[in-house]
Design a protein that fits this description.
A 12-stranded antiparallel beta sheet has the order 1-2-4-5-6-3-9-12-11-10-8-7. The model has no long low-confidence stretch (mean pLDDT about 90). With about 280 residues, it is mainly beta. Helix content is about 15%, strand content about 40%.
Length: about 280
């Protein structure tokens, strides 16, 4: 867990200005988008006191490079009585590669309801294999399938759907948790979940089509990402990630996600549009 904590940590250079200390390179030789998302949220939280983030809305503007650190410039847009707003621009080579708006709120009681967790017969995460084990069993040991670098234990409920090219319903379920034990700081858990939420979400848009997210003739990329935190949780406990994709068109796929605890408590929701462009053979 120390590795993920270090990854999410950012160095303060000046007031409202931060720099990444480490990076995770994805298999396409660019920075993993979830890393920029998690680090940007961490940078924003460093400028806010006694409030937790409840939502974020981000755009991925350019591919990030693993050859140099990322600079996070935080704009303290508003400090209100109940809500605080921050805008973060991530830069490399003097150019913006990502921007995000995030909102923080004081603890406040109010109305409470939620949708139910799916009633499908969902196996316990302990009975499932993670994506690394599945890749090794399928003989797909390669950089594209090496999930160990992400420091997230990721277990598909339907293992076959993760690698094969059969056409399926645009819906997936995964168990996930951060590897190791984290601190009790709720801010760290929200940053860790924002980091993990970018894993495999876009792949849901490919389920109705005979192609895999790992196909060399596919160019996938996150374009934007939104997230809402509803209730407290621990990112180092198992969470069920239920995703669906209502639409794909124009070389873009739109996906949504809900994250539940094992007890069925809805803790967060996500939405993302991503590029799913086929490259001519």
């Amino acid at each position: 867990m120390e590795k993920l904590s270090k990854l999410l940590d950012v160095e303060e250079l000046d007031r409202n200005l931060f720099r990444s200390r480490q990076h995770v390179e994805n298999y396409r030789k660019v920075l993993f988008g979830g890393q920029v998302l998690g680090q940007a949220l961490m940078a924003a939280t460093r400028t806010v006191e006694d409030r937790l983030p409840h939502s974020l809305h981000a755009y991925f503007l350019r591919p990030g490079s693993s050859d140099l650190p990322v600079i996070y410039d935080v704009d303290p847009i508003r400090d209100g009585g109940s809500f605080t707003t921050r805008r973060v621009v991530a830069k490399q080579h003097g150019r913006a590669i990502f921007n995000m708006s995030t909102s923080f709120q004081i603890h406040e009681p109010g109305f409470d309801h939620q949708v139910d967790m799916p009633t499908d017969a969902i196996p316990d995460p302990e009975s499932l294999k993670n994506t690394q084990q599945l890749a090794e069993e399928a003989g797909l040991v390669s950089e594209a399938h090496d999930q160990r670098r992400y420091m997230i234990d990721f277990r598909p409920v339907d293992p076959e759907s993760y690698f094969d090219r059969k056409q399926r319903e645009a819906r997936c379920m995964f168990w996930l948790r951060a590897e190791g034990e984290m601190s009790d700081d709720p801010l760290e858990h929200r940053c860790a979940l924002s980091y993990a939420s970018d894993l495999a979400l876009l792949g849901t848009a490919l389920q109705p089509h005979p192609i895999s997210l790992f196909d060399p003739h596919l160019m996938p990329a996150s374009l934007d990402h939104a997230m809402w935190f509803h209730r407290d949780f621990r990112a180092d406990d198992w969470l069920l990630y239920v995703t669906d994709s209502p639409s794909a068109s124009g070389a873009r796929g739109f996906c949504r996600g809900q994250l539940f605890t094992r007890e069925g408590v809805l803790v967060a929701s996500t939405a993302q549009e991503g590029l799913i462009r086929q490259i001519k053979k």
